[in-house]
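Q: Study each token:
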Amino acid sequence: MNKDRKTEKDTENKKTQFNVRDHFDAKFEEPAKPQEAIQSDQDLQNQKATKEKGANEKKDKKEPAKQYWGWGVTLGLFATLILIIAVLWALFISGPARIEDATNKAVQERITQQVADIQGLRQTKFDYVTWQGYNESTLYWFDATGTQITQRDLSTLNYQQARDKALADYNLDATTVEVAYGYSAPVYRLENKERILMLDYDTLEWVYERKTGYANNE
């Protein structure tokens, strides 16, 4: 009798132990993860479209709106360009020309202060810039500043003698003859379409000669 009761009690204890173990094992068991929903092709396309829309919206926010200018702005820019060209022309072309004109005028005024009745005043350029003129009795030569270099009596002027000398000794049939200034003394300057010849004013000796280049252009 006692054996049977003991056996039953052991059986009940085993059941209790089993139920308690199962309870704690179940309590500490990790919960099952929810199963992810399966996405259809339509859902994927919708997600892609949403992303593209968001990207386009961000791009639109970053890029400033294009601005278009009217004819007024175009005409203003064109007028500004013309003004710049005019200023450059005045500085680099017209400016130096006006300076040279003013300088020449000042030199002429200085010469006329020295020789009040001077005529035929003109500028020549060879070794350096000189001015030549005359009055009823005298030929005058001046430097670039209007200071007198030398003078000769007008009676000594003989263009025909200079022509004959150039033709006889240098085979130059001059078409123009004028008075100029050479390296250190007055000269006759004779020229035709082929050559330029300078002869000393006092001695008619050779001073300078070169080709003009005009003959090759005809």
